[in-house]
Write a structure and sequence with these properties.
The complex is a heterodimer of chains A (608) and B (460). Chain A has 608 residues and is α+β, with helices and mostly antiparallel strands. Chain A is built from 22 helices and 13 strands. Chain A folds into 3 domains: 200 residues, Glutaredoxin (3-Layer(aba) Sandwich); 144 residues, Cytochrome Bc1 Complex, Chain D, domain 2 (Orthogonal Bundle); 129 residues, Cytochrome c-like domain (Cytochrome Bc1 Complex, Chain D, domain 2, Orthogonal Bundle), CATH 1.10.760. Chain A is 32% helix and 10% strand. In chain A, a hairpin with a 2-residue loop joins β11 and β12. In chain A, α10 runs antiparallel to α14. Chain A is elongated, with a radius of gyration of 28 Å. Chain A starts with a helix and ends in an 8-residue tail after the last helix. The relative contact order of chain A is 0.11. Chain B has a single domain, classed as 7 Propeller (Methylamine Dehydrogenase, Chain H). A 5-stranded mixed sheet of chain B has the order 14-18-17-16-15, with no helix packed on it. A 4-stranded antiparallel sheet of chain B has the order 3-2-1-31, with no helix packed on it. Chain B starts with 12 loop residues before the first helix and ends in a 9-residue tail after the last helix. The chains are: A alpha+beta (608), B mainly beta (460). Chains A and B meet through β11 and β12 of A and α3, α4 and α5 of B.
Chain lengths: 608, 460
């Protein structure tokens, strides 16, 4: 949040892009469902994500005319002379004023993004498919020639869509047309314009029926408005106009990787812009970001290993120093409000500084050391400026790394397609039985909670399962087993290793934060999504397989006086335990592959 | 291939006397293994003057950083048995192995943690190495190889094996080739499942891991071994042994490469972390030895009937006591193999005259841990150091003879200690790889005797 505050404070004096955003935000800030302004580029407009409220029922409301939609001469992207009214014809029209080189993500690109979404919807939905035309009108007549417009169009326009890209034939016509639509803009040097984003919904009688700005523009609401106008015109039956059946997941497509996840608006922090996420990714994979330049965030959160490390029970930090807990996965961490196994942080923006500075993790000697290094390394200054309109500092570094992590969204698993998407055959009978046990006899759901329409499978609370207690209180010495090579295991006396072994660090869980004896050995409930990819398990990585985890809970955990009362022997049969494992394995997202592939395209920065 | 080093007496009778250079390669039996150097390299066949010890800094000890320690080992020298020079390089890099260029003018010393390679000039003044160049962009240049380990001389070039990678700090890695000047040439990724690069997977495993490499020029072969990635070699040994996931991340392969094309030919199963590779010298001895650190066995990698194969040929101690065989050293005549077991501090001599059936014939406890062994050309002198890895070594507070350099003579029947230097008492660190230097190698070498700084007094 902090960088956002800062950007707002500085916006008036900064370059024109900030002004552009400020104008848009000033118009809309109060309307955001959470009251957060869009006064800077740090917050992606709602149009980019899922609608955070239920779209209005078409036909259940009116859209009073707001005046005439003026005519005007235009030139289309093929160089043809046209008029706006000719383009509008007898259909509904969505008209956006843009310019192609605008790079305020919540300005013209948002308009084009939503228009593109509408174009796809029209192609999918025959009820409205032929009823709406899309017109993008550039006011940059010098730069946006027909050829430039056609190239721009080809990047966004689905094939066959009724979407025209036009501009004015001359400055005088432009001025008249913009004035008629009250679309003021200031040329700010070069091809940069400060303007208030406005997108107009125009009916068949060429009247303006709705005006959308940054905070309002969303394909769901536009679609509802279109249907409402069609119903009003008698061109659509109200009953048939009900939008495609929406489950409480916000109408997400069953193939959507968000399916089953909370809406983006419920993320614990601002949804990232593309520039912020890209900067965060660059930091995330920068091995120079540790004292001796060997450890990046990604070394303990390896994309190809479920954004954790499958090859270690507990993490290894700089110079091989011991970290006493298992590296948690970062997938879907966007929605977490308790971070670290002991929940000692609540925001990703703050959390990132712990590993950066911890002596046994990345061991940077100071905050300033990190900032000064980044300022010297090629490209970072500019990237922070672009992403946050801010200098490199403690807040913007935190915000950048948080932004990247908030892109690691992975839902839409087979379970989600079945449970939330209604796809009966998305999972097998064993998964369905396992889920019944999960929320029934086994009672896992008490801590790995689900909400109406979505599930993170965590109550974001802390519990004592006995794993920590048993490790702290276990007697020392004795025999251990080790696998020396595949299939070659030995039992050995600990004495043979003891001289080389440091004392195992103790771990008291939440108590280490609160100093409350009742909090001994309490750890955060982890989410279960993608759990098949994030072995080994528990806060100390002491269980290797999901079957071992299920067996542990079936035994009733490790009894101790502080054992959570929810942990008790479950009496599950072997086949019931198998079904629970099958359920857990059905929580793997198809988004993982693309996320890993995307991560592997990011440059790993090393010393030069 | 020939070397034509001009050897000139420097006027120090004790230094040059008895020093002979091997001028021709591949002459069987004439070439003892002077601690397992590249066959492409000039050899010291007489009395070595110096041993360069690549030493790990220890937090809280002395200047805490890695250093090259030069020890005078020539009995004819007034400074025999003393440290004549130390050169600190900054930081702890997990100093590990080092290797000489083919012209023996430069010593390359790698850091397994920071992936830096320090190139020391040992020719200008053999008694006083200088830091000539530091390669800091090894990971960047090689496309993600982490942990430069073996620095092995090829003609005009250095072959550098990696242990890990910058994607996940696991064991998948590559070899990199550099010019002697330290310019990057190429990266050769180890063959692995899904990316065998034309190699034949002869057994169950193709893990893509790496460790050591040696050449068998007469067979146009390189043989590489496989250890483990950064996560494991950097972490506390006790923690690792208790972590079943970590224990799965050890190499189980040796790879035979086409030396000329640097293409992998065959991946052999050698389970249990095969480390050092030492190839026989005899012209008809088409085999190399390696030892597996975890399963504690000697393995023979051999060429027979046109095919490469590997098999375990002997046990080294009792694997359940975690002896951890580490450095090995083969004798000039391929008859003997020294094998150190780190955890019990033993050096063990095996009769390998029948390479398919090695027999342990002598053991001696060197210290409370022992890693490296380097023997002289003639096999009459052997030097030992103690350190394995910074976080695997016995903790510095533990009792015993932990961090040392020790010089022995071998009379054919037993080792006799000549002197020892306690690297903890001297506040130096953990001594690791040793390489030999000799003044007579360098016609242009400065006369170091007069101006050499006293031991420990000056770091360049």
């Amino acid at each position: 949040m902090a960088p956002r505050t800062r950007a707002r404070r500085r916006a008036p004096g900064l370059r024109i892009l900030a002004l552009c955003a400020a104008l848009a935000g000033g118009n809309a800030g109060a309307a955001h469902p959470h009251g957060a302004g869009h006064g800077d580029a740090a917050v992606l407009a709602p149009g980019y994500g899922a609608l955070s409220y239920e779209a209005p029922q078409p036909g259940s409301y009116r859209l009073p005319p707001l005046g005439a939609a003026s005519d005007g001469a235009v030139v289309d992207s093929h160089g043809q002379a046209r008029t706006l009214h000719e383009l509008f014809g007898d259909r509904l029209t969505l008209l956006a004023f843009i310019y192609t080189s605008c790079n305020d993500v919540n300005g013209c690109p948002l308009a084009t993004f939503v228009m593109g979404q509408m174009a796809k919807r029209l192609q999918r939905d025959p009820a409205i498919g032929d009823a709406l035309r899309l017109v993008s009108y550039s006011f940059d007549i010098e730069h946006d020639t027909p050829a430039v417009l056609e190239k721009y169009a080809s990047a966004f326009r689905p094939e066959g869509a009724h979407w025209d890209f036009v501009t004015a034939p001359d400055a005088a016509t432009l001025e008249r047309t913009l004035a008629a639509y009250q679309q003021s803009f200031q040329k700010s040097g070069g091809h940069t314009f400060a303007h208030i984003l406005r997108v107009f919904l125009i009916d068949a009688e060429q009247r303006i029926r709705n005006i959308y700005s940054t905070a309002f523009l969303h394909a769901d609401t536009v679609a509802a408005d279109v249907r409402t106008l069609l119903i009003e015109a008698g061109r659509l039956d109200a009953a048939a106009a009900a939008q495609p059946a929406q489950k409480t997941n916000g109408g997400r497509d069953p193939a959507d990787p968000h399916l089953g996840l909370p809406p983006d608006s419920a993320m614990n922090g601002p949804p990232p812009t593309a520039a912020q996420a890209a900067l965060g990714a660059r930091l995330f994979f920068d091995r120079r970001l540790s004292h001796n330049r060997t450890i990046s965030c990604a070394m303990c959160h390896v994309p190809a290993q479920g954004f954790t490390v499958n090859e270690l029970a507990t993490a290894v930090g700089i110079e091989g120093r011991t970290v006493k807990r298992n590296a948690p996965t970062l997938l879907n961490s966007a929605w977490l409000d308790n971070l670290f196994h002991d929940a000692r942080e609540t925001r990703l923006e703050h959390q990132v500084w712990s590993p950066l500075l911890a002596h046994n993790e990345m061991a940077n000697p100071s905050v300033g050391y990190v900032i000064d290094n980044l300022a010297q390394w090629s490209g970072y200054r500019e990237a922070f400026r672009e992403a946050f309109d801010a200098d490199i500092d403690m807040e913007s570094i935190g915000a950048a790394l948080a932004a990247y992590q908030r892109t690691l969204v992975a839902g839409g698993s087979p379970f989600d397609r079945w449970h939330f998407g209604g796809e009966e055959d998305a999972v097998g009978a064993d998964v369905k039985r396992g889920f019944a046990l999960f929320r029934g006899k086994a009672g896992c759901i008490a801590c790995h909670t689900m909400d109406d329409g979505h599930a993170l499978f965590t109550d974001q609370a802390l519990h004592n399962t006995g794993i920590g207690y048993a490790a702290s209180m276990a007697p020392g010495g004795g025999q251990r087993h080790a696998e020396l090579a595949p299939g070659t295991a030995i039992a050995y006396d600990l004495a043979y290793v003891a001289p080389s072994a440091e004392r195992r660090p103790n771990d008291l869980g939440r108590y280490e934060v609160t100093q409350d004896p009742d909090d001994r050995w309490k750890y955060r409930t982890p989410g279960l999504r993608n759990v098949a990819l994030t072995r080994p398990y528990m806060h100390d990585g002491s269980l290797s397989t999901l079957a071992e985890v299920v067996a542990f809970y079936n035994r009733g955990g490790s009894p101790n006086e502080l054992l959570d009362p929810l942990i008790r022997p479950l009496g599950l049969s072997d086949s019931e335990q198998d079904d629970l494992v099958a359920f857990l394995q059905s929580l793997t997202s198809p988004a993982i592959g693309p996320l890993v592939e995307a991560a592997q395209t990011i440059t790993v920065s090393n010393p030069d | 291939m020939r070397f034509n080093h001009s050897v000139r007496s420097r006027g120090h009778a004790g230094f040059a006397a008895g020093l002979v250079l091997a001028l021709t390669l591949f002459a069987p039996s004439a070439f003892a293994d002077e601690t397992c150097n590249s066959p492409y390299m000039a050899k010291i066949v007489g009395q070595e003057d110096y041993v360069y010890v690549w030493t790990l800094g220890i937090p809280g000890l002395g200047d805490e950083q890695d250093k090259l320690v030069t020890i005078d080992v020539n009995p004819a020298s007034e400074r025999y048995g003393t440290i004549v020079h130390t050169l600190s390089v900054g930081g702890r890099n997990e100093a590990h192995h080092s290797g000489l260029t083919d012209d023996r003018r430069y010593l390359w010393a790698g850091g397994l943690d920071t992936s830096k390679i320090f190139i020391f000039d040992i020719a200008t003044d053999p008694a006083k190495p200088r830091l000539h160049k530091t390669i800091t962009d090894f990971v960047d240049k090689t496309g993600g190889v982490v942990g430069p380990h073996t620095t092995y001389a090829l003609p005009g070039r250095m072959l550098v094996t990696g242990l890990s990678n910058h994607e996940d700090h696991g064991g998948v890695t590559a070899m990199a080739e550099y010019t002697n000047e330290g310019e990057y040439v190429a990266t050769y990724w180890m063959p692995k499942d899904g990316a065998l690069q034309g190699a034949v997977k002869s057994g169950q495993f193709a893990d893509g891991f790496g460790y050591d490499v040696r050449a068998l020029p007469r067979l146009n072969a390189l043989v590489s071994s496989s250890f483990t990635g950064w996560n494991n070699y950097m972490m506390d040994l006790g923690k690792m042994m208790a972590d079943p996931e970590a224990m799965k991340q050890f190499g189980n392969t040796a790879v035979v490469w086409n030396l000329h094309t640097r293409q992998p030919k065959v991946v052999l199963d050698v389970p249990g972390a095969p480390l050092e590779v030492r190839c026989a010298w005899g012209s008809s001895n088409d085999y190399c030895f390696t030892t597996t650190a975890l399963t504690s066995k000697i393995w023979l990698i051999y060429h027979e009937d046109g095919k490469w194969a590997a098999k375990a040929v002997a046990d080294i101690g009792d694997a359940s006591k975690i002896p951890l065989p580490v450095d090995i050293s083969i004798s000039a005549d391929d008859e003997l193999l020294w094998v150190n077991t780190w955890n019990d501090g033993m050096t063990r001599l095996f009769d390998v005259s029948d390479p398919h059936a090695p027999k342990e014939i002598y053991t001696k406890k060197i210290g409370d841990q022992v890693n490296m062994v380097s023997q002289s050309w003639d096999g009459k002198r052997a030097y030992y150091t103690s350190s394995l890895l910074g976080n695997w070594d016995k903790k510095d507070g533990a009792p015993g003879d932990l961090q040392y350099f020790k010089a022995y003579t071998w009379n054919g029947e037993q080792l006799e200690q000549k002197f020892a230097i306690d690297f903890l008492a001297q506040k130096l660190g953990r001594p690791h790889q040793m390489r030999f230097g000799a003044r007579a190698l360098y016609a242009d070498a400065a006369d170091a005797e007069e101006d050499a700084a006293p031991a420990l007094a000056a770091n360049d």
